[in-house]
Predict the structure.
Amino acid sequence: MKVVLLFLGKTADDYARQALRVYQERLSHYLNLEVVELPDLKAAKSLSEAQVKAREAEAILEWVKPENQVVLLDERGLEQSSEEFARWMQKKMNSGLRSLVFVVGGPYGFDQSVYTAVKERLSLSRMTFSHQMVRVFFVEQLYRAMTILHGEPYHHA
């Protein structure tokens, strides 16, 4: 199974890019992982919040295909412990999925058309984090899940 991390816009902060590189390298031992950064919207500052979300939705919805299971990282999603997330990932890996696509949205969240098309959602916390931090937190949790599933000590470090 391939895991895709789909980000709206580039990872702008140096610390976040460095952390993503570290965890991508670590995860390469466990998963076929691809990070996709969709281009930033042109002239986004001249668009309303609704227009931004609608344009971002077009790019996200291109990933909604029969061979992809898409999961939104969303504040209203399912909250899990690290161990629960590891078991959730194991079920996905055992299910025969071709691709599991995790989407980190833009600063305004997701358009209603995305919520309609994509039913599965995960939450990292009830707290609000910047989209740069969400990228780092999620890739770390993905790595943690893999070490839990392999009985490695990272989770208890």
